[in-house]
Amino acid sequence: MPRLLGQPHPFPLSRGPFLAAAGAVAVCLLLLPLFLPADGHGGVSRASAVTTAILDFEPQIAVQTLTPTVFMRQSGAGDIEGNLEFEVEANTSSVSMMVEATGLHFSRDLEGREVAPIPLRREAGVGIEAPEASLGGGRVSFEGPGDPIDSLPSDKTEAMLFQGRTPYRFSSRVLVTVLWDQDEPVKPAGQYVGRVKLTCIVDPTLP
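-> structure tokens emitted (207 positions)
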């Protein structure tokens, strides 16, 4: 609409710069991004998570012989007793033990072609004692053939469970007693060789 002569300008020129500045500020405010604090700590954002580390420590056991060679003497018929000593260490408290033993074979005829081996007294079983254990010990019966030991045929016993005196650990000497049946009145002189093996088994499901 045309402005009448003498009518004040709706936007005085003296206020033009102010209006231009105000308009610029308004535009800037509209363009600024808006940030709100994520929490009440001055706008710092934080997150965390927890995971679990689990170690399965394998059961371990060590068996060693304290009497690598046992010397026995016999002059005629009768039982021959062999006393053998082992040591057992395990990181579990429960240990099962079994014994495998061979007959006594003439050292110059291990296959027994001319001299028959002196057999085990199977009906007597085998004695197993662990003096430092709190549970277990006594005689165990032979249950059947075992694995050959150094090519000599063997018989194996049932397993017997032993319990250590301290939790989560077994440590003890183990005494094994084996009997052989020498029922021949005369036997060729010389050395007769046999093998005795102690096998120990740990079960991680047992305490």
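Residues 16-31 form the longest helix (16 residues).
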